[in-house]
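For the sake of transparency, this paper describes our internal protein records without simplification. Because each token names a local backbone shape, the row as a whole describes the fold. One such record is reproduced below, unchanged from the form in which we store it:
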Amino acid sequence: MKKLTCLLILGLFISFVSCSKGKDTTPTKTSVVKPIDQDFTTGDADLAYTAFNSYFYNPTAKLYYSTTKKDGVAAIWTQAIYLDMAINVYQRTKAPTQLNMINNLYQGNYNQYDGYNWNNTSVWFIYDDMMWWVMALARANQITGNATYLDKAKAGFDHVWAGSYDAANGGMYWDFQHSGKNSCINYPTVIAAMRLYTITGDTSYCNKAKAIYAWSKANLADASGKINDNKIGNNPAGGQDYTYNSGTAIGAALALYKVTNDATYLNDAKLYTDYVKNNLCTSGILPAEGDFNEQGVLKAIFAQYVMQLITEEGQTQYLSWIQTNVNTGWINRDATRNLTYRNYAVACPTGDIQSYEASSIVTFMQLCPPSSK
């Protein structure tokens, strides 16, 4: 991919195929976007979120659609990521209407998914889907103080721990069949446990988080900072590099650092971030995960935790890199709909696009301070 010029972006698609998420090669039409502004603003952050909701949110069902066609709901685990987005907007704006949005999303998903009945194996079919929700519900409790959200998060965590944790060998299985121990369940378990510890003061959550993080660091991470996708049996860890795995590894390390003040955790978070910046990017631009599948949401998860490292832990050496990504994605939006795309370096398609692939720039914009001109 050629480097950025003043207001013209050229690039290549970088796409990754997941072993666990379905793929559809539905063609879409791309547009030529005439850039309006080099740097996004806080007003643009509002505009991007409003556009995202306009094209993807169903205010009657209180759920998000999977695509701009509005003919089906988004995947269960991604609805939790969109709840995180709503919480981000509230934390940025403190708008009372956003508290309503958080509560509405809880209710819409409650209605859709059997009241968060963790025992319903028709609603839930893998453990990591549950743990994304445990994380989001715990965070919703921290924001709203609603005890019901905490009760649901605690019940979900206990259910997953009972079914997923390998007491003999350590680590968490990602699926009901115990076929492998994936990053997408292990690092989120650490984050969820630390949120519950922060809320309740119950040290058993902290002890579980430390144990799962130690297992994950030994079995899923390597010395370069790479976070492998999975470990199957006694085989070496492997699988595709994904930004969300790096993101949740960063988040897990930071959650433990905040409580222990052990600099090892902070150094781990920086190592994981350096790996993404130096190995997954092309000319500094994050990879275009999600070829019309759920992987389009992965960078929204990465955004959540890399921005914690930058803004909460003062690691501003990464800020300009992230701002370049956000500005690039925003410049290349569909200027008619103000929708953004999973591949930041190309023009957003003007046809049908997924909420997954439209979500990450919106998330980044809620968390990342605009560039100073």
Q: What stands out?
A: The longest helix spans residues 76-93. The domain at 137-280 is CATH 1.50.10.20 (Glycosyltransferase).
